[in-house]
Each structure stands twice: as structure tokens, then as C-alpha cells.
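ARCHIVE CARD
Drawer: 12
Card no.: 0347
Subject: one protein chain, sequence and derived structure
Cross-reference: see card 0346
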Amino acid sequence: MPATVNITASDMIEDGPMRAYWDDGDRGVASSEAKEVSLAEARLIWSDDVHGVQGHFFGLIDDQDRTIQFYYDAGIPDHVEDARDLPIVWLDFPVPEKRGSYGRMVTVGEVDGLIQTAFAEGLDHRNFGELSFEEW
């Protein structure tokens, strides 16, 4: 189960608009139809709508069409009650003009903070620590 998200007044402060898309099996929003969201909404979508099942994902697109994606590379095992420390989410920054993406594996618990960083710092991959580049 993903970590509980506590929403505060500071969650409503944002540097720029973000659009969100996600897939939770039979529910979600396609990237081509991404909807504008606040930080609070983005955090709630990740924690409440994107369940820890392999293949499910959540993405944000900024006003410069840069994208960050969080993809469950593996599912949360049924016997795990607190999944925050599981490194099963692939953090991904697709860069079509370079025909590849920057990324790294992160824990389920790190994602909420990374979403907050996305809103505070923007979607420049250089703001998200050490990442590796993989060609497509």
C-alpha cells in the first residue's frame, strides 16, 4: 500500500501548470488527454488512483512539454503492508529528441517527494539526482 498523503495549504502553491495522465488497469487518462492538476491533485492521484500493480503508471507534463513518469516495474506483493521502502518504481524522463530517456529505480515512498519536486523545480531531469540515459 502506498504511503498516506497529507495535503497542506502549501500544496496549492505551484510554479507552473502541470497536466497529469495515468493508467491503473481499466481506469486512467491518456497522455494525449492529460488534465491540468494542482500539486494536491497530483499527489492524490498517485496515492489513491494508481495502485501498486506492475505496468500501472502516473505521468506529469509541464508547460514546456517535458514529461516525468512513474512506472510500477513490479507489483506490490500481497503480503507487504507497508510498501514505502520497495524500490519498484521506475522514474522516467523521456527525451524524444535524443531518442531515449533518463531514469532510475526509486522506492514507492520516494514518489510523493519527487512529485513535489516536479511542481517546485520543474521537469528538468537534472533536478532529480543521478539518472542514467537509455536509448530506445
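Annotation on reverse: The two ends are 31 Å apart (CA to CA). The chain has two helices and eight strands.
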